[in-house]
Amino acid sequence: MLKEQLKKDEIAAMKARDKARVSVLRMVSAEIKAYEVNNREDISDENVIKIIEKSIKQTKEALEYAKQANNEEKIQEGNFALEVLTPYLPKQLTEEEVSEMLKEIIANGNYTAKDMGKIMKEIMPKIAGKFDRSKINPMVKGLL
């Protein structure tokens, strides 16, 4: 499971005295623990991926603010956090692959512009954790 891999990597980072890596992994571990406590259940890999995606999104937003403020220290921290977290995500799909999937869905379902919600419902499970969700809506609009 992904949760166990994160824990092993956190322990390895502690032994190596890599404080920055430990900090990033502990942040994710804390969010996983909070999920388990709130839902009173063990977390699935799918939900771990969602938590990692959320952390990556927050880190990217923080990076944008750091770049606007020219804060080199925060920029380096953000880039390092992205380096640490990205390998835990599944292999990412390219825009071309997702575009082909969308074309196939639209052709098979004979969808029109009114059916955007149905198209989104069909594509989202296929790309979960493998593609940036914020890019899907404009892609669908472009194909319709």
From TrEMBL:
SUPFAM superfamilies, per database record: GatB/YqeY motif
InterPro entries, per the entry: Asn/Gln_tRNA_amidoTrase-B-like (IPR003789), GatB_Yqey_C_2 (IPR023168), YqeY/Aim41 (IPR019004), YqeY/Aim41_N (IPR042184)
One Pfam family per UniProt: YqeY
Protein known as: GatB/YqeY domain-containing protein
